[in-house]
Amino acid sequence: YNVSPRKLKWPNNNLTFRIENFTPDMKKADVERAIRQAFNVWASVTPLTFKRLHSGIADIMISFAARDHGDFNSFDGPNGLLAHAYAPGKGIGGDTHFDEDENWTKESNDYNLFLVATHEFGHALGLEHSREAGSLMFPTYSYSPGFPLSEDDIDGIQELYGPNPNRKVKPKPDAPKKCDPMLSFDAITELRGETILFKDRFYWRIHPQMPEPELTLIRSTWPALPKEVDAAYENSDKDMVVIFSGIKMWALSGYDMVEGYPKYIHKLGLPKKVREIDAAVHIPETGKTLLFTDEQYWSYDERTSTMDVGFPRAIELDFPGIGKEVDAAVYDSGTLYFFHDYMRFEYSYRSRKVISIVRANSILNC
Amino acid sequence: VPIPGDETDERLQAEKYLSRFYNLPAGLLGARKSSDVLQTKLKEMQAFFNLKVTGKLDAETFDTMKLPRCGVPDVGE
């Protein structure tokens, strides 16, 4: 998190706000509810209280306006900048403006006023943007239901105002730390020469031309995917990435979702008792895709779109040295990379043995 | 998707600088399109320092931001 320059904050805990006008996009009562709820979010983790005024000057003056609206910081039409707020202070300090050119909603479509208002009030209380993806104070909008603050947001606001002595809240889970020695992965796949590593609600993107892996919320890039994924693999012949979560699977072509999905994983020929896939990897030389679940794996023939006979087989027997279960797997030039807990096993597919074992996050330059 | 520049940290620092000295209020960007608000403020700053006015956070602009300032009123306060 970041606090504003010189830690600007309100000198007292009893703040006032006033809604100067309303957006025609929503019912007046819904706007009032969204604003009140947004203040309540911050009040739940600090000793701050927010009282609404219906006239006069409040600490935080709230308005909807388009383009040039008299503060020398014009809005830019639909999308782009959604709203802005001034750091604590007299006069314009704390004031929060929403771009009327956006379509404001109380749902998940377009821009949810409650979420944007909560972010902006973070600024109005003295927080700057956080570089932690998934935090409310991250500078790009993304929709997610439930309590919007992450541990990072709470740490930031409590540095300024301290905690709320009367309430405990459950923050959103933190973004994973790439150099955490205990880091494990949910799924890994190649995607047109990039490597995508899924972990909780996030994914890292490793691109040969990017010096550092980039962490993003899955939902920000693919809103139609589930919150978390179990397994993924790339079939480069079909230019397709298949993503598994529970008993369903989705497909990507590049970064675009392929129509006709999700499908049930049982369409592949898996028995109904299989309820999730732990890891998946495609071997281009054989045209087979290996699907790992619990202590067994299946082999799927991509050319005939059928499950090979003689499966499932025990992972431990066919891939000696990697243990009984697998979290994620990728294949590169005759080598399979298996990930389990915080370990990465480099396994020679040709000589059928483990060549080396390193930390899982060595793939993230840790 | 396009490869982002490796200037995330620099952008955050520039945002802080511009909010402190050029009254740039912190805001939230939409999911679909970037905004030219930061660009406008950068142009203002580059014009003030007689830099080449590009609206981009180039090395010269960023280096100027790092220089100590003296006797300049703090707009933010």
Short précis:
The radius of gyration of chain A is 25 Å and the shape is elongated. In chain A, 13% of the residues lie in helices and 31% in strands. The C terminus of chain B is likely disordered.
- List SSEs of chain B in N-to-C order: HEHH
Q: Unreliable stretches of chain B, pLDDT < 50, 5 or more residues? A: 72-77
Cα(first) to Cα(last) distance of chain A is 22 Å
Tell me the strand percentage band of chain B.
5-15%
Number of helices of chain B: 3
Secondary-structure-based class of chain B equals mainly alpha
What keywords describe this structure?
heterodimer, A: 366 residues, alpha+beta, 5-stranded mixed β-sheet, 5-stranded antiparallel β-sheet, 5 helices, B: 77 residues, mainly alpha, 44% helix, 5% strand, globular, disordered C terminus
Tell me what the structure shows.
The complex is a heterodimer of chains A (366) and B (77). Chain A is α+β, with helices and mostly antiparallel strands and 366 residues long. Helices cover 13% and strands 31% of the residues of chain A. Chain A has a 5-stranded mixed sheet, covered by helices on one side. In chain A, β10 and β11 form a beta hairpin. Chain A is elongated, with a radius of gyration of 25 Å. Chain B is mainly α and 77 residues long. The model of chain B is unreliable at 72-77 (pLDDT under 50). The interface between A and B is large, with 43 and 29 residues. β4 (81-85) of chain A pairs antiparallel with β1 of chain B.
What's the layout of helices and strands?
The complex is a heterodimer of chains A (366) and B (77).
Chain A: E1 14-19, H1 28-43, E2 49-52, E3 60-65, E4 81-85, E5 96-99, E6 104-105, E7 111-112, H2 113-124, H3 151-161, E8 187-191, E9 194-199, E10 202-206, E11 214-217, H4 218-221, E12 231-235, E13 240-245, E14 248-253, E15 256-257, E16 263-264, E17 279-283, E18 288-293, E19 296-301, E20 306-307, E21 313-314, H5 315-318, E22 328-332, E23 335-340, E24 343-348, E25 353-359
Parallel strand pairs in A: 1-2, 1-3, 3-5, 6-7
Antiparallel strand pairs in A: 4-5, 8-9, 9-10, 10-11, 12-13, 13-14, 14-15, 14-16, 17-18, 18-19, 19-20, 19-21, 22-23, 23-24, 24-25
Helix pairs in contact in A: 1-2
Chain B: H1 8-21, E1 26-29, H2 37-48, H3 59-66
